[in-house]
Amino acid sequence: MYDGITFDEGFRLDLLVEELVIVELKSVEMMNLVFQAQLLTYLKLTGQRLGFLVNFNVPLIKDGIKRVIL
Question: Per mean pLDDT, which range of 6-15, 16-25, 40-49 is the poorest?
Answer without folding.
Answer: 6-15
